[in-house]
Amino acid sequence: MKTWVRLVLAICLGASLLLFIRATDLQKVINAIQQVGYQFILLLLITLMAYFFGTLSWRYCLGNSSRNIFTGNLFLIRHVGETVSLINPASIIVGETVKVFLLSNHKIEKNTAIASILVSRIIMIITQLLLFTAALAVLLANNHNLNLELNNRHPVSPDRYLSIRRTVDDIQG
Predict the structure, then answer these.
(1) For residue 68, how many other CB atoms are within 10 A of its CB?
(2) Which of 1, 44, 58, 68 has CB atoms 3.0–4.6 Å from 120's, for a disulfide?
(3) Is 110 in contact with 104 (CB distance < 8 Å)?
(4) Sequential DSSP letters for the chain
């Protein structure tokens, strides 16, 4: 790629990142991290594992072309593409294009790269829909159990209820 194109891309990415940071209330971010405490590190590790497994999934989508690239490099390419998607107004369109470009540096054909990205995205969408359905089922089941439990409870103990009822009956009558 020509030097001027890389320069323009770098400037656009840098400007997008600066706009993103300017629009973020860093004090709120710091407060949220402090509320989570040391478990923030655990969250980072879990996220790292999720990205790693996503990278392995993408590697399988590349088929035989995956031999041309080390998993660590594929991880970095995926992460760069996803980050560009997050901070760029054009979202995944630019992020996925960056992935195709970066894969081409590893002798992976453009059509293979595009196909692997599409299959990987479809797998992620199906997985998210399945997880959403399972989570919704669990939430609805728990909500139903909670409603049954609340409907079967008196707001006060039975003895207290009878005492209040007698008082109301005395007043009325």
Answers:
(1) 15
(2) 58
(3) yes
(4) --HHHHHHHHHHHHHHHHHHHHHS-HHHHHHHHHHHTTHHHHHHHHHHHHHHHHHHHHHHHTGGGGGGS-HHHHHHHHHHHHHHHHHSTTTHHHHHHHHHHHHHTTT--HHHHHHHHHHHHHHHHHHHHHHHHHHHHHHHHHHHHHHHHHHT--SS-HHHHHHHHHHHHHHH-
Res. 36: pLDDT tops 90: no
Is residue 78 within 8 Å of residue 54, measured between CB atoms?
yes
Tally the C-alpha atoms within 13 A of residue 94's C-alpha that lie toward its C-beta: 14
Show the CA angle centred on residue 72, arms to residues 38 and 42, nearest 5°. 10
Q: What pLDDT digit, counting tens, does each position of 109-153 carry?
A: 999 999 999 999 899 899 999 999 998 888 887 776 655 555 555
Q: List the structure tokens of 145.
A: 């159990």
Residues 76/52, Cβ–Cβ less than 8 Å = no
Within the chain, what is the greatest distance between any pair of CA atoms? 95
Write down the domain spans for the chain: 38-172
C-alpha–C-alpha distance, residues 101 and 117, integer Å:
12
